[in-house]
Amino acid sequence: MLRTHTNGELRLEDKGKIVTLTGWVQKNRKMGGMTFIDMRDRYGVTQLVFNQEINPKLCEQANHLGREFVLQITGEVAERSNKNKNIATGDIEIIVSELKILNESLIPPFTIEEETDGGDDLRMKYRYLDLRRNSVRANLELRHKMAFETRRYLDKSGFLEVETPILIGSTPEGARDFVVPSRMNQGQFYALPQSPQTLKQLLMVSGFDRYFQIAKCFRDEDLRADRQPEFTQIDCEMAFVEQEDILQTFEGLIKHLFQFVKNIDFTEPFERMTWADAMKFYGSDKPDIRFNMRFVELKEAVSGRDFVVFDSAPYVGGICAKGAATYTRKQIDELTEFVKRPQTGAKGLVYICCENDGSFKSSIGKFYSQEDLQHISTLFNAEKGDLILILAGEKTQTQKALCELRLEMGNRLGLRNKNIFAPLWVVDFPLFEWDEETQRYYAMHHPFTSPKPEDIHLLDNNVGQVRANAYDMVVNGVELGGGSIRIHDSKLQNKMFELLGFTPEKAEAQFGFLMNAFRYGAPPHGGIAFGFDRLVSLFAGLDSIRDCIAFPKNNSGRDVMLDAPSAIDKEQLDELAIQLKIMNK
Fold first, then answer.
1. Distances in Å between the alpha carbon of 111 and those of 2, 129, 579?
2. Counts for the chain of helices (H) and strands (E), in that order
3. What's the pTM?
């Protein structure tokens, strides 16, 4: 080894030892006849001291060391006179007697410090430098520890980790596949797995009754803060179980990780909420329940007062922001502009201020008497000093806008503390969702999700009312994972394919291998997959999953460091028998 110790290892009890350290120059400071260098590695920072009076040649050499030069030094551990309590090695320094430059460095394009001056694009282009920053490295260390702890927990629970293929067949139901041409089978393509869904079901048929995998998954979809084209799942499946068994097992995993990472002990069961209630009270299937502010439906209470906005709207609903009646007109106008943004889609905002003297101030005061406003406020259990905010319009769009407004008020009022966690199971999703554009039903999760046994009879005449044996885990408004009990009966699976518009030939072509396997004794089974990147991001308090991935893509799906995706040579295309057709955008 080129070193005897790391830069985070030495303490005062090591005083007098002769040590050899390696690392990168973090800072270089000249003070009179002394030069001080902070040398950094993955483990920490150690201060190096060069003395002009003791070794002028060595000190002169140190004066010319630039940031990020790679060094090897030998010296004696000494007690530091001006101790630094902000670092673990702050009680000591190294009096350097030998210095070797292992490699020089160009001037970095941004400062490699916590408060860096590098923007996102610049840091992603030089990600190998960005990874030297303590905070980014700490995120990857956390990821490593969580992966190991997940494996440890599941191993103790009887799960086997089984790797599944990355090159599989395309199953275009769901997000778009990434496809890979086959040279040996020209004109044909592999797909990268969106998840190991069918493969883990086959493992259940094979008798591996408890499977997991920390699996790479790929989806060609539009990106946002919690999405990447390639991402990682804690993918799990169990046989001979019902929904309650899945929820108990994996609630245990998440509780264990909270205890391990955050030292938070959830002793009570996680709250459960039906999908219908989540949409009714929060306008979202992943509600943030760290704060209340539930929707109150008002259509009946506000109709018939000649206020055309409410009278003509199919849906009128609102939220009550505690203590926000002090909002100025300017602040309310800002909220109005917020809900009118294209991505939110509301046409306007109605407010009612519950004044401290018991009266009400409202933008609809000329249509509604003080008694009317009092009645509305009682529906919210509003108190003096509260602010009621109301939207009206088409139900789905208005609930979506009200959800955005609720979260915005939660942010403004400081109710979304990253150090407070509110886990929730959302259950009883619809089995199907209707698409207006194509005028047909799609599986809300995937075609292998089992309907609730008591709803199977509705498949013949009331498809839209069928509930799924499906469940999502939500924490602080983030969907961390989801799963379902699967269909294991071939007849019921064929019925699902039929309802989803698959011809028997298409179903056989895409899923014949699975249907054939079911004919050889498939056990009842179900599972769940957690977004590992999202889980790490939540525990690290990050706003984007990119910061806990070593080499992420940007919002356009590009790796700006590797300049990928990129064109390939004509010779490669010819070998694959592929011709390019460039589409005009």
1. 27, 9, 45
2. 16, 22
3. 0.91
